[in-house]
Amino acid sequence: MLLSARSLRPLGTREDPLPFARSARPTYTRWVPGASPTTPPWPLRALILALLSAVLCAAPLAAEAQDGRARRAAEKVRMGRALVGAGNPGSAVAYFREAIQIDPHLEAAYVGLGELYRGQGRDSDALETVRAGLRRRPRSVPLALLMAATLGPSDPSEAMAILRRVAEAEPESVPVQRALGALARERGAFAEALAAYRAVARLTAGDPAQAEVLAEARRFVAALRLLVGDVDPVGRCEDTEVRRALCEGGR
User: Fold this and answer.
1) Per the confidence metrics, is the pTM higher than 0.70?
2) Which of 147, 153, 177, 182 is nearest to 164 (CA)?
3) What's phi and psi for 128, nearest 5 deg?
């Protein structure tokens, strides 16, 4: 009788399973006393700790770098304003521009450069500067006032619209109310000018530092009351723009 290869295998041995049926050999992780079962292996823990340390160290360094940029930009603005005050506006332009490059969010740099251009009669450059600043600082009152002042001679309607929006958002701002009163007075909107100057008088009353502003506001209030009264004399307060202006704060 012919013997097969299976029958020739020594007694007591088992047939090896087929390759695709073999089970994977189990692996075991050495347990470290005191470690929880979920503790990651040491190399992974070291990597996590290194990343956390890098993040924690980077935040103060970034803040310090930002503070350094802000200080350098503010110093450039101070130098620019000093040059303007010394009668050398041409040299001041470079300082204001450099301040904007160092800190693109620095409001004072845009205001300084815009005012300089406006003083030189370069209104288009002033408006371009102000618009660039407003893209960075859309709620900036000084930039909005500068835009209205620059637009006033060429586009008073747009300037008035800007001042009205700013006054609605910042009703307690003396510079805003003064600018609105001045432009409204120039355009013959006496009731609106009266309301603005009354607001200025209310906001500056009792402040010695604002004594001149208060005197100016009171002077305009007295004159505008006569003008508004001639246009629309009233004996009592009623719900119209003119009458509200007359009645506010007493006649």
Assistant:
1) no
2) 177
3) -65, -40
